[in-house]
Design a protein that fits this description.
13-stranded antiparallel sheet, Anthranilate synthase, 429 residues, 10 helices, alpha+beta, 10-stranded antiparallel sheet, single chain
Amino acid sequence: MRIDNNSNKKTFPFQANELESLKLKMLNWLQPFSIFSYLCTNSICTTSGRYELLIGVAAEDAPCFGIDAIELTNNQDWYFGHIAYTYKSYVEEDLINTLPVFNGFPTSLFFKPAIVIYIERDSLDLVIVSPDPDLIYAQILQSRSTVPPIQEALVFSSSETQTDYQAKIQRIQDHIRKGDCYELNYCVVANAKMLHTSSLQVFASLMKHSPSPFAAYYKNKHQQVVCASPERFLAKNGNTVLSQPIKGTIKRGLTLEQDEHQKEILLNSSKELAEHIMIVDLVRNDLARIAELGSVEVAKLIKVYTFPQVHHLISSIQCQLKEGVNFKDIIKALFPMGSMTGAPKIMVMQLIEQLELYQRGLFSGAIGYVSPNGDFDFNVVIRSFFIDGIAQSIAIASGGAITTDSDPLQEWDELKLKVKALESLFQKA
């Protein structure tokens, strides 16, 4: 054990083969707390990032903060929390939230943690920051290193039938042909009752079957989200701000040869490439609002990244932050993420409010952290389960980008592909 100059911070070494067991112990240890955020990359790196694992735990009486409270300069505190899609009404006053709710997370919420635990990338040190790190470490070691498998079989009920969904796609294409928009990301919801399974079981099973680089297990009292996101919304490292939108998806092949063929299909799909370039341009324009003049650049354009069930097209767009820009300025310039709205952003968000059946809430929002030095990292909340402990309900939302080239049947098939990995966790019970 190494002791930092700060007496409230200690470092506990571990062996490489102990990492997964240690993660499970920490997950079990977290369960009694009412507010926490567990963020993990699962050793999958789409770009540089500091942490393999980062945990923030709130005290029982901890106050909660909004976006306005967060400073990037002269900041001495950690902040963990989320920004829901409904924050769009603070970005643009004309955007309203009138649809029924399917997850009850507030518009934005951040907390200063009483306990911070992290493992830096490529490190074999567990770091604990708390009034008594030794006590926390002892409690973690005494926790269980196993999580019972899911035994409950669930059938999710979709908010729309295939016929209704395809009709909506045609309505969206009518709007595009009339010039109302160029691309719109349309989403649906599926619900089920979950009576005999804990959110911990869901998260452990999800990480086993769909490990992802922006995973999150986030609890705000009885509202919980279990997230296997492959997508980064926004990160700040020093003076560099980075966004990595995903647009373009294809399922994995059954063999290595088929897998490579699927990648080639994705890279040569005029529809997928057109959608992707449109979102890259949108992000470039959004970043320009908070960037030093001339500093916006596409660091990587259209690269294929491989995940357990699918291949994705991802680009990396970054800029240098201009002087005097605060956290709220950055969020208002970029939020919501273009990959989950479409273009032009304001118009498509107005159409989404007319077309979708549920208020997205935290779905297609962001979960992340702000560190004491002013750096931050936030994911895109997709590939997620939303769990209400009081209502004993569990929900999934998913969608896809619609253009004039979209085939309604193919869009339905892609939608089912995206949620299959989630629903299948309960179909194997």
